Amino acid sequence: MAQISICLKRIFTVFNIFFMVAGGLAILLALWCQFFMDIRGGHNLEGRSTQLFILYMVGCITMMIALLGAYGAHKESKVALIMFLVFMVIGCLLMLIIGIPAAIIHPQLKGIAEKTFSRFVPLDRSSEDVRNMAEGIQEKFHCCGLFSYKDWENIPNSCVCSQEEEKEGKCQTVENNTFMLQTMSVYTKTCFPTIMDHIQFHYNIMLVISFTLAVLALLGMILSSIMIHQLYYPNRPTIVLSMMPPKYEELYNIPEY
Q1: What whole-number distance in Å separates Cα of residue 129 and Cα of residue 49?
Q2: How deeply is 229 buried, as exposed, middle or buried, from its count of CB atoms within 10 A (0-12, 13-18, 19+)?
Q3: What pLDDT is recorded for position 94?
Q4: Alpha helices in 109-162 (DSSP H)
Q5: pLDDT for residue 37
Q6: What phi and psi values does residue 183 have, to the nearest 5 degrees?
Q7: Weakly modelled stretches of the chain, pLDDT under 70
Q8: Within 10 A of 251 (CB to CB), how many other CB atoms are there?
């Protein structure tokens, strides 16, 4: 005989579907970030692989926990639901630990990014991965240098404008140190604003995922706690509310003589 109400099971099923969707979005975000970095040669940058691995793990673990909760509710398994509750408590705390500091840092994100990218200047002296990523971004978005074309001691061909772009006024004439101060036409637009737009976009998605998972984990804690209560006390109502004042109850419940 079923001990968990059918209505609660349905609500819990819908919850686990949303929980799995959130995990799938985390995995898709990791794939998108990896694809973005592979195109621009940034897959070996310090810390990027670790961050992507964490994002993959969060997505996979989230989907596995959702399946555990769905199984526990369907089979009315106390062990599965208790494990689900424990994972929800841990997950909610972790998401808040990640999301709250990230939200506090968000207004300072541009300054932190400027300080970080300024360490790569001059770009010629940076690692090969950084140079490849910079040139890939320049070719893709038609920009030159992070903050200025002067970020390059020897301006690469990825900065050079076409004749059509020169006519559109997107270029500037500068001197290159490669061939005895030969003048060349390079993009006026710098790459840092474009990079910053992508960073903020991915950062905002990370914040949304973190707080969404935290809210879903809190809801999962509540629903699983109610189901566990129903399994341990099948004949006892989950919530008992008495709306009558004590004196009224004494008058209402007339003693038998």
Answers
A1: 13
A2: middle
A3: 86
A4: 109-117, 128-141
A5: 56
A6: -80, 145
A7: 1-3, 35-51, 176-181, 234-257
A8: 9
CA distance 170 to 23: 42
Spatial distance between the Cα atoms of 94 and 78, rounded to a whole number of angstroms: 24
Q: Tokens representing 192?
A: 């840092």
How many residues does this entry show for the chain?
257
Q: Is 237 helix (H, G, I), strand (E, B) or coil?
A: coil
**Could you give the angle at the alpha carbon of 59 between the alpha carbons of 57 and 60, nearest 5°?**
65
In 3D, which of 126, 129, 184 has the Cα closest to residue 155?
A: 184
pLDDT at 239: 47
Helices 6-39 and 48-75, packing angle to 10 deg: 160
Answer whether 203's CB lies under 8 Å from 187's CB: no
φ, ψ of residue 116 to 5 degrees: the values are -70, -45
What pLDDT score was predicted for residue 176?
A: 67
Q: Cα separation of 145 and 118, whole Å? A: 11
Residue 9 is predicted with a pLDDT of 81
Structure tokens at 68: 């555990």
Q: Which two tokens stand for residue 171?
A: 């270029």
C-alpha to C-alpha distance for 172 and 174, rounded to whole angstroms: 6
